[in-house]
Amino acid sequence: MEENKLFERAKEAIQAFDIAEEMCVVGPYGSGHINDTFLVEGEKNCILQRMNRNIFVKPEEVMANILGVTTFLKEKIKKANGDELRETLTVIFTKDGKPIYWDKQGDCWRMYYMIEDAISYDKVESEQDFYESAWAFGNFQQMLSDYPAATLYETIPQFHDTKERYHAFLQAVEADVCNRAKDVTAEITFFQDRKETAYVLGDMLAQGKLPLRVTHNDTKLNNIMMDKKTRKGICVIDLDTVMPGLAVHDFGDAIRFGASTGDEDEKDLSKVSCNMKLFQLYTKGFLKGCGGSLTDTEIAMLPMGAKVMTYECGMRFLTDYLKGDTYFKIHREGHNLDRCRTQIKLVKDMEDKWEQMKEIVKECSVKIKEIEK
């Protein structure tokens, strides 16, 4: 019943946008879990979304970031004789010239033109897919390397402030509202013993050793549109979490998720490790896409980006477990604890392979620099 009501509201919402009258809502679209997404068919197919106000409490700021970045990208794409309708998102304005529509129920809607003849994948089906996603996210960095990142809104405050995540974790341990801390002392000790991991990147940013960048903050494969014929990465989508941040965070989160040999909630930890072949492949693609836009320090810190993001994510899962599973959706008892343990296993595996990871980054960087000369 609720789905039917939402569908009717979606049909009403499209009337507010400056598109052809004959367009109609077909139905739910995609595999996203944050916003409600619909396919709208017409002369040019569109995507209609009801934004999740629980997560994005200031949708105007989200859309301001998206418009700023996509307008900037379109100018770059045009100068390179590219296709601006395929290589970045195009926001459709309402009939009164706004990027969002507020309905009578207080919900916020937006529309984009669909990226034609392209597809996204939820899982890596081939190593080439992983490489293409790396290149696309690297190219996203390169094209926005001269964008004034500090002018963007921080739509989710302290999203990758690992130091603050660490403090929140300590508070959860101290409060122990569910009396669970006694059963996870090994996991708590793991994060406490690596306190410096929570501080390293933030300290380098504060000291000016790492530059503030435009970051995507959700660098999963399914946020890349790939050409149906060539299977090349052509467009980065889902720009809701575009914010000021560190390039190594974007790289690191992709490695944490994409180079792991096990699922994020795998119970059998013997199946979980960081695949060095995939790490090398992603590093190569990311640096190639970046096109020389990263500093030498950023490149050298890519392995640390992978470790920090894995550490941070594991710590967030444990924090949520200690607080009673109030943030991440769970599907079984101890689900967040299982997720935490996979991240711990990944961090340990990265530490065991640390010199190898640094050598891979160094070799990839040298080879790409030689090619670019």
Descriptive account of the structure:
The chain is α+β, with helices and mostly antiparallel strands and 373 residues long. The strands form 3 sheets. Strands 1, 2, 3, 4, 5 and 6 form a 6-stranded antiparallel sheet that branches. A 3-stranded antiparallel sheet has the order 7-9-10. Strands 8-11 form a two-stranded antiparallel ribbon. Helix 5 packs parallel to helix 11, helix 8 runs antiparallel to helix 9 and helix 11 runs antiparallel to helix 12. It is globular, with a radius of gyration of 21 Å. 40% of the residues are buried.
Apparent shape: globular
Structural class comes to alpha+beta
Oligomeric state, counting identical vs distinct chains: single chain
Number of helices: 13
Strand content: 5-15%
Whole-number radius of gyration? 21 Å
Number of strands: 11
| Range of helix content | 40-55%
Q: Could you give a short account of the major beta sheet?
A: 6 strands, antiparallel
